[in-house]
Design goal:
about 130 residues; alpha/beta; Nucleotidyltransferase, domain 5; five-stranded mixed beta sheet; 2 helices; globular; Small ribosomal subunit protein uS11; Ribosomal_uS11; rRNA binding; structural constituent of ribosome; Ribosomal_uS11_sf
Length: about 130
């Protein structure tokens, strides 16, 4: 029998970073301290969403609200927000952050953009 490990990391200075990964299928949110150690996280599966409901904006708002609740319990006051991906969780994250009541220092879009893309297929010979 394994027992659940107690989380010992908290936001010592009250500052942290929030990473939102919004894919077409689900949304993940991760909270780290200033040095990059993961303190808490939340996803659609942990919030109780299954199947097609994981990709809805409503699921994304409840995921982010749950993550913010966990982070506030661990002494989070101010945030740097990093949003990645094209999914419906992007706009939902912005709406939740507006009403969260936390001090938001920065919002950055870190979605990877290809500079030249993949190599195209060779031309078909008939």
């Amino acid at each position: 029998m394994s027992t659940k490990k107690e989380n010992k990391i908290t936001f010592k200075s009250g500052k942290g970073k929030m990473y939102v990964k919004a894919t077409f299928n689900t949304t993940y949110v991760t909270f780290t301290d200033e040095t990059g150690n993961v303190v808490c996280w939340s996803s659609a599966g942990t919030s109780g969403f299954k199947g097609a409901r994981r990709s809805t904006p409503f699921a994304a708002t409840s995921i982010i609200e749950e993550g913010l609740k966990k982070a506030r319990a661990l002494n989070l006051n101010s945030l740097d927000v990093f949003i990645k991906g094209p999914g419906p969780g992007r706009d939902a994250a912005m709406r939740v952050l507006k009403t969260a009541g936390l001090d938001i220092n920065m919002i950055a879009d870190i979605t990877p953009i290809p500079h030249n893309g993949c190599r195209p297929k060779k031309p078909r010979r008939v």
